Every structure is written in structure tokens, then in C-alpha cells.
Write the C-alpha cells for this entry.
Amino acid sequence: MTNRLAYRLILWVMAFSLMLTLFGAVLRTYLDYKEAIGSIGEDFKKIRAGIVPGITASLWVMDREQLKVQMDGILNFPHFSHAAIESEGRTIISSGNPKPGRSMRQEFPLYHTYKNKAINLGTLSVSANLESIRSTVFDRFYEWLFYQAVEIFLISLFVLFIVRSLIGKRLVTMAAYVRELRPDRLDKPLVPLEERRGEKQDELDQVAAAINSALHELNVELNRRKAAEEALVDEKEHLSVTLRSIGDGVISTDISGTVVIMNKVAEELTGWTNEEALGRPLAETFHIVNEKTQQICENPVERVLKTGRVVGLANHTVLVSRNGGERVIADSGSPIRDSEGKVIGVVLVFRDITER
């Protein structure tokens, strides 16, 4: 399972190598066959130039012993199986036996000049057996193909060993490292690179280095965010303590006028707890009316969001708590701005002035 890539690679290498070997073997066999046919043609030329004149002379004097020697000499050429001299439809002398199958035959007229007159003594027929050429060529084909296949197999085994040693094991190690990766282990570098320090880096080392670099940057970023979150928690806790320590009621909203936070004094004055008011519209938890007319007053948060400035409540403003109690209050609303000066919310500060 862990070396599946290596085995697939070797199978492809072997398949491609065998295809090339087979193509080369077929081409080599064809060229060998053509070369053998060409060599027979050259032997025919040698027979015409070197042997036919001697056979003609021996035939003129009917020297059978010499003719026999000359005919046997023809069969000494490779692949020649039969030679015969024929005259007027009868065989005068022959050597060898015709072979079955395909053959290549050449005839040479035998002329002897006597008293300036060419006399036809007969015809020399020579046959070359092509089946023997074919057999020889195919024997070479199978032998060469076998040795090439063995060579490819041995080379493939060696390549498999190299791939498993240099690539496969290291990829498995890298995969195991990534599988076991946890946020608390980001500071542990990838083992394959650490074990090869001092050696010239290859492509897998570069991949390991890239992974180590990415993990280092990720670890730095996570630590930065963790520190920021801890600082935010501390800041929130500090803000909560500060809000609880303020003697006035404080309500903070977002840009849409929804309650984000409410301190203890605001809880007592409105009758809503911070948890209950969280996420509700301010008008629902901070219900204010005119003390004399009992008409609902304009929402101070809406005024702040419209103007972007600090605003205060009109005189004789009464806060109606959740349980129906009424208190005359004085308050002011201020915009909350981000680092770019954009309004992101409103903080409302108010106090009970009923006894005044």
C-alpha cells in the first residue's frame, strides 16, 4: 500500500521499455533478413564471375570429377541447398537436395566459344533456401528479445529499489508527519529535512523546506493570534471591571442600534440584565418618555448615528423601567469610532436625577 506509487512507476517503465524493445527487435529482424537476402544476391554474382567459367570449361571436356568438385563448392556458400546442370531437359549433374518452402533460384546459361562460335552447353541452376534464413533470423530475434527482457527486468528492480529508498520512504514519512500534525506540534520540523542537514538538497528536500517554512509562519501567526486573543480577553475583563465601577448607567450599541453591553447601574435603572438585553434594539430596553406629556422621546442613539456628534437628552426625560418604574434621567450619547474615524457604534451614559 505504501509503495503503490513506486510499483505503478516501475510497471509503466517496464511496459514502455518492452514496447521499445519489441519495436527494436522487429526492426532489427527485418534488417537482418534484408541483409541476408542481399548477401545471397552478392553470392550469385560471385558464382557468375568465379565459378560459371570453370564449370563451362569442365563441362566442355565432360570432366565429371571436376564438375562434382565445382558443384559442391557452390553449396559451401551460406544458405545454398541445391545446384544442377541441365541440358535439353535432362540433368547432367547435380549437388545437394532441393529444400521445401520458400527459395531463391538463379539460372546461369553455360556458353563455350569454339571456332568463334558460342555453343550452348546447358544451364546451371542454383537454389538458396530462404527458410534457413528465416529460421536463423527468428532465432536471433527470440534470443535478443529474451536477453533484453531480462535486462529490463533487472534494471526495473534496481529502479524500484532506488525509488522506494530515495522517494517512497520519504513520502511515507512526510505523509505520516502531516497526518499527526497538531496545533501544539507546529514547532516540530519535518524529520526528512532534519536528518539530511549538510547534504545537497533535492526536490523532496525543497518540498520539506517549504512545509517547514509554512508551518513556522503558521505557528508564528497562531501564537500572535493567541496573544491577541489573550490580550482581548484581558481588555474585555478590564472594560467589564471599569463599567461595573462607573456610577452612571452605561449602554453600548452597534451601528444598527442593537445592545452590545450594559453595566450594572444600567441594569438596575432599566430592569433588564445584560444577558437579556444583549442583541435587542435599544428602544426595547431603554424606554424614555417626556415627563409632562408622556410622549415617547427620540432615541438618542439614532440622533448620534445621524449626526455623528455627542448629543444629550432633553429636560424632563423619564426612563420607564421594565417593571414600570419611572426615573427622571440625564444622559448623553457619544459615537464610537474605529482607528479610521468611522462610526461603529454608540455609547449611552445616563444617571438618575429624580431626587434632584
Summary: The chain has a mean pLDDT of 85. Residues 156 and 203 are 22 Å apart (CA to CA). The radius of gyration is 55 Å.
